[in-house]
Amino acid sequence: MSRKIDMIKELRDELIRFVAECAANWHPDSRSRYFDEPLLGCADATDSLFGSYKQIIGEHHLTPRELMETALPGKQFASGTVLCWILPITEATRASNRRQRLWPSREWAFTRTHGEAFNNAVRQHLTEFLLARGHQAVAPLLSASWRTVATADGLSSTWSERHAAFAAGLGTFSLNRGFITERGIAHRCGSIITDLVLTPSPRRYRDFAENCLFCRDGSCGACISRCPAGAITRFGHDKERCRIYCYEKVVREIGERYGVSAPGCGLCQTGVPCEARIP
Ligand code: SF4
Ligand code: SF4
Q: What is the pLDDT of residue 156?
C-alpha cells in the first residue's frame, strides 16, 4: 500500500513540477500561465464504470483495456490505473472571459488552442515518465484509437477525458455539460492509462451532476443566460448548437483576428458560480 501511495505522490509531484516549470504553459506575450497547479486522481482501470460508459455514451466509447490492447498489440491488459488530471485555468484568463458577452477573450482563445497543446505535452510527459520506470502507459487522446464519431446526440469520441475524471473522483457533470471540480468548471483535463496498479481516489459524490447547483436543487441556471448561442436551457445542453457556435461561428469571426485555430468559447464557464469552485 505505501509503495502505491509513494508512487501517486511521485506522479503528483512530477505533474505539479511540469506545470509550474514548462515554458509551454506560458502565454506567449504576457507574464501569465495558462494553468494553475493541477489536480490528480486515479481510477481503477477495471472499474465497471468504464464498461457502463458503453451504454451511457455509446458502443464506440472504448474501455481502458480495449485502448491498451489496441495500442500495445500482443500484450494482455488485466489490471492498471487511469490517471486523470485537471489543469485549472488561471484567474487572469477567467477574468478576461468573464467580461465577454459574445466571443471568447484572446486569453481564453489562446488557452483553448496553445494551452491544449501544452496539455498534449503533459500527456506525453507523464507517459514517458511511466515508461522510463518500466510501466506500460498510453495517452488515449494521443493514441491511434482516438477519433470522433457522429451520433444522434452530436459528435462524440472514443474516449471522454471528463468521464475518466469522473471515475477518478475529480468532479461531476453539470447542466451545461461541463465538469465541475474542486477548482471549478474552467479547466482542461487529461488522462493516461497505465498497467501500474495504484489506489483509486475516492468518489465523494453520489450523483453524476451533484456539483451543479441546478442539477442539485433546481437553483442557479446562470450559464443559461451566459450562452450566446442559446445552447443551454433548463432541459440541458444542445451539443450540436454549441459545436456550430464554437467550431464554426467563433472560428470564422475571431479565429483569424486572434491567430488561433480553435478559440473555443467558455462563456458558460466564466461569470458563473461554479467558475472556480464547487458552488
Ligand atoms: S452556472 Fe449554475 S447551473 Fe450552470 S453549471 Fe454552473 S452551477 Fe450548474
Ligand atoms: S461553450 Fe459557448 S456555445 Fe457552448 S454552451 Fe458554453 S457558452 Fe454556449
A: 94
Angular region, 119: left φ>0, alpha ψ -120 to 50, beta rest:
alpha
* Any ligand 1 atom below 6 A from CB of 272: yes
Query: Region 111-119: what's the mean pLDDT?
Result: 97
How does residue 31 score in pLDDT terms, banded at 50, 70 and 90? confident
Whether the per-residue pLDDT at 202 is higher than 90: the answer is yes
Reference 86, options 185, 11, 9, 173; nearest CA is 185
* Most ligand 2 atoms within 8 A of CB, residue of 245, 253, 270, 275 to mutate: 245
Tell me the residue type at 148: T
Position 1 scores a pLDDT of 57
Residue corresponding to grid cell 502565454: 27
Cα separation of 275 and 51, whole Å? 31
Distance 36 CA to ligand 1 centre (A): 22
Distance set, CA 14 to CA 125, 138, 140, 194 (Å): 9, 17, 20, 16
How far apart CA 131 and CA 195 sit, in angstroms, is: 10
- As given in the structure block, the three cell numbers for residue 27 are 502565454
* pLDDT score at 246: 97
pLDDT for 12 beyond 80: yes
Distance CA 119, CA 123 (A): 6
**Does 186 sit in the ligand 1 pocket, CB within 6 Å?**
no
Q: Which helix (H) or strand (E) holds 5?
A: helix 2-21
Using CB distances shorter than 6 Å, the residues near ligand 2 are: 176, 226-227, 229, 231-232, 237, 242, 245-246, 265-268
**What is the distance of C-alpha 17 from the center of its chain?**
19
